[in-house]
Amino acid sequence: MTDDRTLTDSPRLGTEADEPGTADTWTVGDLTLRSRVLLGTSRYPSLQALLDSVDASGTELVTVGVRRVDLSETGGATLLGALRDKGVHLLPNTAGCFTAREAVLTAQLAREALETNRIKLEVIGDDETLYPDAVELVDAAGTLVADGFEVFAYCGDDPITARRLADIGCAAVMPLGAPIGSGMGLTNPYALRILREILPDVPLVVDAGIGTASDATLAMELGYDGILLNTAVAGAERPPQMAAAMRHAVEAGRLARLAGRIPRRLYAEASTPEDGRIELGP
Amino acid sequence: MNSTAPIRINGEPREVPPGLTIRALLTHLGRDPDQPGVAVAVDDRVVRRALWDETAVPEGSRVEIITASQGG
User: Could you give the CA distance from residue A255 to residue A31 in angstroms, rounded to a whole number?
Assistant: First the structure.
């Protein structure tokens, strides 16, 4: 007997409004995705570990960097070819850019090289925290949206900046859970919750900070549309296994969100009914 | 006329034959200009691939040649 409700059957989760069995997809820019895991491609122990992790995570959208061609090598393009063979969509990033000018040129180069309008916009403020520079970020986002890009904006958890990015027309707003690569998890879930409440209709993705599966689940329980992670998988002792954990964690959190959790209460409430209890004699 | 022209490619100073188009420059550098996944900017402006045959690289210009890399 086949079990069509297993966790590996992610498209058949059902949604709040739809009848059971309807695919639980989400739309970001011109993509409609079943997977809610966005996976980075950096720092894996090997290309094979990366490709196995792509498979195990179920991701349909992976990030890549934009860097100078190594002119001492005539080969190259191994990564790109391998990712294209997997059939995943590419989300190039502007990692390492400190100014709007750098980020805009990097995005334009990425568009030309990879033939996609998608860009993960990172404009960072310093090397120690890798926190976004909100001023340069909003500037770059405006320029890129006007230039026809689908901007996935990596930002802090400050609701004012997030709303500006949404108002500009970013395809997705992607607040950090904690500094990039820190694995500290969602350090301020209350701020993330506020973002979800004030931006109910914009795709929201927790980008950066996720360390392990429960962080991914929490992001989904907070109502986020997806998570973007890299180091948590690439730096794990067994990356493909962690990628699989993230896939299941996201599905669990998404199901819990859709199911509607019980309210928190300070005092106990008996789960076994009071009626029918036995009585002792005096 | 000089036999070589100084330009900067990916931050490194280089001497190349003067008047090269972008396509010819890539070939000169030992690269296949038809390899996908590569983009070129000259003096901070992207040059569309369709224009590589007709766009000359000016003497003294800064050329960036990029591709996709690992990234998070």
Answer: 22
